Amino acid sequence: MRFLTSGRSHGKALVGIIDNYPSGIKIDISIINKELGRRQKGYGRGGRMDIEKDKIDIIAGVNNDISTGSPISFIIENKDWKNWKYRKEEPILNPRPGHADFTGFIKYRLESIRDVIERSSARETAARTTIGAFAKIFLSALGIKIYSYVKSIGNIGLGNDFKINNNYNLVENSDIRVPDPYIETKIIEEIKKAKEEGTTLGGSFKVIAKGVPPGIGSYAQWDRKLDSKIAEAFMSIPAIKAVEIGEGFNSGKMKGAEFHDEIFYEKNKGFYRKTNNAGGIEAGMSNGQDIIIGATMKPIPTTRKGLKTVNILSKEKEVSLKERSDICAVPSASIIGEAVLAIVIANFIQEKFGNDNLVEIQENMENYLKYYRNI
Ligand code: EPS
Questions:
Q1: Which of 49, 57, 82, 109 lies deepest, with the highest CB count within 10 Å?
Q2: pTM for the complete prediction?
Q3: CA 354 → CA 78, 134, 182, 345, 359, distances in Å?
Q4: Neighbours of 6 (CB within 10 A)
């Protein structure tokens, strides 16, 4: 499945098109809207979240709640549009360090940074979360589920030896998606302090895919590796500055015998590993273990205090643009991470088991798993 999105943060709506989505999948709109609601949540989110109640309006590709195999198109209305459609403003020329402002203005030879802000805004991720929701519905029909949790915000976080142990209910019950009430309280204090100081916070999160069969992706060609496409997808989320697979950055400090996940076999369990440092991916392929991705998000560039910048035309020293924004959007980024991981895995599932129809894909995958179980 391939997709495109379009839309301005304060324009009429966000638009998405999904091509090559399998037919025969029951599309429950409430599931998609629930994902959109999860993206909007999070202590530290800005005032925009009080205006929007993101909902999808499907234009084509789904008939009687079932996907048809034709391109799916949808819109997400921007409720804030009514406050912007008649708005007139002077050209904005004081770029925010860290956002698209400065370079976007130059690249597209614009009159005002406004046209950069409107598309580079993290608002676009509402469309990507919608596409990820379609991918999750498809994967769920194959027994594949995606989870996430926030690992740290600012300098406070879960220990490196933290294990989620499937306690995802703790994540969903947390205002900042941190599965530890004590750490959650400390982080919320940190976000309050950042708000008082007029600054912003980044952080890190984990995304986990469970139930992925071994052998999606390939070692045979550079651009068919599962982990390289996952890294690309995570880096496409606004403000993400680092992605790791499994033990990622820690792996450089570990010895071979410590890092690699040794292989075992028991008749009633089949092949298994006692560790998962590889994060479920070896040599560009899923190995049947949980796929575990870590990502780090930089602090949001729009700060209330503003940052040192220069007026692009007058060259005068100025303070950067101060617009309504979030203090911290790491919890939201973890939801977007779930969406982009689902899209990548859905693509590799289609590559291996077929593109066209859910039943056909289910049959092909079951046939493959039967072979794997009876090697
Ligand atoms: C966001 C919508 C935006 C921002 C924020 C996230 O809405 P507005 O600009 O009207 O406040 O709040 O965008 C950013 C943090 C950013 O840096 O672009 C959203 O819907 O997620």
A1: 49
A2: 0.97
A3: 36, 17, 46, 13, 10
A4: 14
Using left for φ > 0, alpha for ψ between -120 and 50, and beta otherwise, residue 145 falls in: beta
SS3 62: strand
What is the Rg, in whole angstroms, of the alpha carbon atoms belonging to the chain?
22
| Cβ-contact 357, 25 below 8 angstroms | no
CA 48 to centroid of ligand 1, rounded, Å = 7
Nearest-atom index, ligand 1, CA of 47: 11
Instruction: List residues bridging with 19 in a β-sheet.
Output: 2
Q: Where are the domains of the chain?
A: 2-373
Please give the CATH superfamily to which domain 2-373 belongs.
Answer: Chorismate synthase AroC (3.60.150.10)
Cα–Cα dist 284/287, whole Å: 9
Using CA positions, which residue lies closest to atom 13 of ligand 1?
122
Closest ligand 1 atom to 301 CA:
17
Backbone angles phi, psi at 99, to 5 degrees: -110, -170
Per-residue pLDDT of 162-189, as tens digits, reads: 999 999 999 999 999 999 999 999 999 9
- Closest by Cα among 192, 196, 97, 206 to 154: 192
Q: State how far the alpha carbon of 295 is from the alpha carbons of 14, 22, 239, 308, in Å.
A: 25, 29, 10, 28
